[in-house]
Amino acid sequence: PSDGYALIQGNIFGSSAGYQDIIDFTGGQRPGPIARFIGNVFTGGTDDCLDLDSADAYVAGNVFMHIHQDSDRESKSYAVTTGTEGGGASELTVVGNIFYDVDHPLLSKDGGFIYAAYNTMVGTHKDPAVGDATSAVISFWEDRSGQWPGVGAVLEGNIIYDASRLWEDIDQMGTTTYLIANHNVIYGVEE
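^ thats the sequence. predicted structure below, dont judge the formating
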């Protein structure tokens, strides 16, 4: 309902197998109530942990770890992703989370936008056993049917250590990606 809300707080989520999201959430956009994911632990995953379609959300104080694509497929593996359902775009505020040992902490796609601040991202690498897996701190497009690029992201005050690359898929499909990175501590990025 328009006056409803979603608060997912203080939970421990186990891993998924195959092409399965841990949470696939649709709806709730500003200026109305938005979803809040606070203080949860995601112990693993093979697709997305938080797949937020046409959903504005506040994602804070969570731990995302061991999230890796497990087989060759079009859809990659992300800890937090925007998406669309019925044409609405997602705007996410991602603050104070820990991302450890993941393919991609963030995906801004389908016209979505992510403000990411004061997160710690360590060990952003793909599983070398999966041939078509990719890896970056943030991606702006997923190359599969029905997808289009995200608008962009602001990365502010994050700690990024030991990553294969900072971003991928900028300026896809004739778009211009909006990207601002300020006051981050970045060390050990391969490219």
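The chain is about 0% helix and 45% strand.
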